[in-house]
Amino acid sequence: MGTLYLVATPIGNLEDITLRALRILRAVPLIAAEDTRRTRTLLTHYQISTPLISYHEHSKAARETELIARLAENDLALVTDAGTPGISDPGFSLVQSAIEAGYDIVPIPGPAAPLTALIASGLPADRFLFLGYLPRKAGERRMLIESVRDQPATLIFFEVPHRLLASLQDLTSILGGHRPIAVARELTKLHEQFVRGHLADVLGEIENQPTRGEYTLIVGGQSEAQAWSETEVRDRLAELIQSGAGHAAAARTVAGESGWPRNQVYNLGLEES
Predict the structure, then answer these.
(1) In the predicted model, what is the mean pLDDT of the chain?
(2) Separation of alpha carbons 262 and 122, rounded Å
(3) Residue 68 and residue 2 in contact, taking contact as beta carbons nearer than 8 Å
(4) Pairing relation of β-strands 215-219 and 180-185?
(5) pTM > 0.85
(6) E strand segments, 59-192
(7) Would you tell me which of 85, 171, 193, 219 could form a disulfide with 155, CB atoms 3.0–4.6 Å apart?
């Protein structure tokens, strides 16, 4: 009876792989890879000739039965296109099936983009919530962000370049412009970059940059210090409006100071007028 090895591979820099991972990739008779071309680049770099078979989101239904059958006779290594298998990839399904069939599962730890970004973000790492890729549809994305608005743990998201600005705008609108964030791009690669600050400021900075590469967003959780009471928000709004600020400008200022979503602050301002 074989063993399913879950082998973490580099998320960018090919040097980020463990000696144990290299040994397992050489020893197993077959490697199931989410992206065989990307994995072949890694194997070639380390002069590993183990055969590859594809296992990705579009092939998993047909391929899973075959891979479970192979485990009856031999060991199998599972790798994702980058990082740790089972995190935002189809590996979870194969692991479930292998467990149900009674096979041993052995994790070979290594790089993972969420943790790599988190430890360099400067935000609390004692409690965190990883939520994968933000939804493509704007309505679903906003619903998800709204559902974790009061979550005290640090939030971690993946995002693709062409939706980055829209997602940052939604995060700013719903969580408030004063919420801290670190945007990590191209982790461990030549052009690795971190943009840290408050949501409103980071959004303004990234709006003026080309968006390309792979992004991980680390967002500070809600804290008692950030969460103003409704009375405090109303009082500060009234103070700004009485001093001559317009409703929109006052709402923007109070949202940044209080951590409240700007649209909610604006609506409270309308009630006061």
Answers:
(1) 90
(2) 25
(3) no
(4) antiparallel
(5) no
(6) 76-79, 104-108, 128-133, 154-159, 180-185
(7) 219
CA angle, 187 then 88 then 126, to 5°: 65
The predicted structure's pLDDT at residue 227: 62
Side-chain-side CA neighbours of 229 within 13 Å: the count stands at 3
Tokens of 107: 């994790």
Question: Comparing 52 with 81, which gets the higher pLDDT?
Answer: 52
Q: How many CB atoms lie within 10 A of CB 61?
A: 10
d(CA 7, CA 224): 40
Q: What pLDDT, on a 0 to 100 scale, did the predictor assign at position 245?
A: 81
CA angle 107, 108, 110 (to 5 degrees): 120
CA 52 to chain centroid, in Å, comes to 27
SS3 166: helix
- Alpha-carbon distance values, 90 to 55, 59, 208, 214 (Å): 8, 10, 35, 19
Per-residue pLDDT tens over the stretch 223-264? 754 567 778 788 888 888 888 888 888 888 887 777 677 777
Cβ density class 18-40: b for 16+ within 10 Å, e for less: eeebbebbeebebbbbbbbeebe
Distance CA 10, CA 65 (A): 28
